[in-house]
Structure formats: C-alpha cells, structure tokens
Design goal:
This protein is α/β, with parallel strands linked by helices. The chain contains twelve helices and seven strands. Strands 3-2-1-4-5-7-6 form a seven-stranded mixed β-sheet, sandwiched between helices. The relative contact order is 0.15. About 5% of the residues have low confidence.
Length: about 280
C-alpha cells in the first residue's frame, strides 16, 4: 500500500491532515459541545459509559473527543499522519489520562483491520468515500461492529453528472500549483454561492474566499475548512442513499437514523444497528 505522503506528493490525494491541523487550532469548548450534541442526536443517547467507540478517519479528533466526553472508551485512527498528530494534540489538551488511543493506519489495510477488536460503535463521518475504494472500506467498517452494535457513517450523495464534474475539479486541484488552487477555490465559492452572487463576489474581491472559520457551524465545524476539504477532497466517490441502505442491509444492519442532504451536494448520514441475523 502506498503511504499517504507519497500519494499527496504525486497529486493523487488531498492533504486532509494539513487542513485538519489548521482547523484543530480553532477547537474550543463551544465546538466540542456542538460536536457532542450532534452525536447525541444521531445516536439517541447522551451516555456512552462502558461502550467502545472506533473512529475511522478521525481527522482533527473532534468527534473522538466528543465520544470521550460521553463516557466511551475510544480508539481513533487515520491514514494521514498530520491528522494523527492533530488528534493526539487534541487529546493531550482536552482529555489527558483518558481511555483514548490514537494511531496511524488505513481501513483498507486488511492486516490492521484483522487485529482490531469489535466495537460497540463504529463511526466514520465523511471518510470512507475518500479512501479510493468506498465499498471495500464500507465492508471493512461493517465487519468491525460488535453484535447489536452501531454503525454511524456519512457518504457523499451521488448527484449524477454534477458529481462527475466535481471529481474532475478535485483531481485538477490536487495536480495544480498554489495559483491554480486559489482560482479553483474562488470559482467554487462563486458557484456554490450562486444564489447570493453579490456577496460571493465581494468576498472574493476582498481576498476572503470562503467565509471565516471563526464562527462554528453545524457539528462544531468550520465553513472555511469544510470548503477547502470539499474542493480538494480527492479521492472522491459517491453513493445514493438506496445503495448505502442495500449494502448494509445485506450485512444484517437495520437502519435507525437517516439524515439526507435532500438530493443536493453534501453527505447523507446513516446510523445502523447490527441485527440478529448477524449471529445466525
């Protein structure tokens, strides 16, 4: 398996970890609270005491931290070493001396996956579609859920032709230099803000590009860093809600929570429970 840094240097992968490192500097109690509330809403509980939580592609570590705050025993891993370092720093700052381990690994590494124990909650928000092999990654994630446990994933929505266009934008971004990347970001701001063109043009003219990341958005995230992640996020795959549902149902998972992006751009969010058929 080619390592993350080689893929980035070859223009085959976005430097997700660098973006998460910048976002990590914004993490505070307000963002942690927002992240925790989003977990509580999707999982239907405020207490994870005694439960294991596996964070696949931990990014900044924000949601691993939220799970720790809910009482879970947490294991986090990411393919990008910069993400791992950012998560470790977050752990040291906000949750020292807790039952939270962090390591660098890939969900596509079968030897690593085999060494992992089952988890009560397997969490992977906006990650599996960036592995370069979405369905292989989904299958591995499903296999890590303990009997009666929970799978919480979000996958980019398939918009047909528009998704194919965005794939090309992302590929070009990662194969381009700094100037071309800034142009792609600015063009994406104008396109995504097409319902508010005057505001978008003013932001671009002022050199601000995407809106400031200082004010937390949903899930405690940052609009600025989410936009950079969106434009640069490559590899990039998509799926319809029906495809995700059918894939998981074939593996004995039952849908418990669904939040879609209403057919638009973004991620569809799924929470599944591993049903009784998995034991038979």
């Amino acid at each position: 398996m080619i390592d993350c840094e080689t893929e980035i240097s070859q223009g085959r992968r976005f430097a997700f970890g660098q973006n998460w490192h910048q976002f990590g500097q914004l993490v505070d109690e307000e963002r942690i609270t927002s992240a925790r509330r989003s977990l509580e809403l999707a999982l239907g509980t405020t207490d994870l005491t005694g439960r294991t939580f596996l964070d696949i592609g931990c990014g900044s570590g924000l949601f691993s931290l939220a799970a720790v705050r809910m009482g879970a025993r947490v294991r986090s891993f990411d393919f990008d070493p910069d993400s791992v370092r950012t998560t470790q720093k977050l752990r040291e700052e906000f949750a020292p001396d807790t039952d939270w381990s962090v390591c660098c690994a890939s969900i596509l590494d079968p030897d690593f996956v085999k060494r992992q124990g089952k988890a009560d909650i397997v969490y992977s928000w906006g990650v599996l579609h960036h592995t370069g092999s979405l369905w292989k990654a989904m299958d591995a994630a499903c296999g890590l859920v303990a009997p009666g446990g929970t799978l919480f994933v979000s996958i980019y929505n398939d918009q047909g032709l528009e998704s194919r266009v965005w794939t090309e934008v992302k590929r070009r971004y990662n194969q381009s230099g700094p100037l071309a990347r800034r142009l792609l970001l600015s063009g994406s701001v104008l396109y995504l803000s097409r319902n508010y063109p005057a505001r978008a043009l003013l932001n671009v003219a002022r050199g601000r590009g995407p809106a400031s990341g200082a004010v937390p958005r949903a899930r405690g995230m940052s609009r600025k860093h989410d936009l950079v992640d969106w434009v640069g996020g490559y590899p990039f795959e998509v799926a319809t809600p029906e495809e995700v549902f059918s894939f998981c149902r074939e593996r004995a998972f039952e849908l418990r929570h669904l939040k879609t992006c209403r057919g638009g751009l973004g991620c569809n969010e799924f929470v599944f429970t591993l049903g009784s058929r998995a034991d038979g």
